[in-house]
UspA domain-containing protein (Phaeodactylibacter luteus), 284 residues
Amino acid sequence: MDAIRKILLPTDFSANAQNAFRHGLMLADRMGAEIELLHVIYPEYEPLDLPVMAAQATREKAEAARVVMKEFMELGLAQMHTTGQIKSVPPIHADLEVGTPASLISEVARRDEADLIVMGTRGSHNTLERFWGSTATAVLEHAPCHVMVVPEHAPYQKIEQVGYATDLAEADPYHIWEAGKILDAFSPVIRCAHVNLEQSVEHALDLNGLGHFFDNHAPALQITFHTLQGGQVAPALDQFIDQFGLDLMVMYAPGHSWWQRLFHHSETKAMALRAQVPVLFLKH
């Protein structure tokens, strides 16, 4: 796994996007990464418009967005300097694109070889449910890199306690190790949790097996294992986050089929929508 060197941060200039920007700044500072700020402009178009009129209106929106982008960056940097949460300002590149966020975010991440997308879970023109049903869902399905979603009002703080939600799949040791490498700059404690739904489901691994694997192959990794009891995934993980004061949750999200399964389980969807800490989705 390569190190995180470029973070793509989509913004609609909302307060929630500003919060995600602060998270991105903290990550970039600790990881030695650069940030690409992306604002997507919806093209101005009316059925009776002449093409030249529509193009002019879009250019005017772009000029206004450049001014707001500069103010957005200055505000975020000033807040982080005031709190002393970054040691130096990472390289920041501002990018304006015309189109729809749901498709362009993944396209830009692929074109510019981003290693991580950091985005808020609420836009200025969407309810949280609608946002997750459109833009974030599309990005998580199609992004070529890892994605971190930052809930509204999630505090930006040092990542010390991390939760990993495991379904005891055969590839879990690799993905847990990958999460540890991505977050190595923070030296966090990783708490792996499996929710026992009391169903007769066979798993490729068990928590004892995972523990032995990391004892033998990654003894320096600070990792613990927990079995959670409950009839639903979301409430059990909510309690787990609260019990250990987790700063971040990590999940493996390989692609479209996984995302369909996830969102067909109302309890897991509810957990994602109401999460009070950022969630890092590993894509590969």
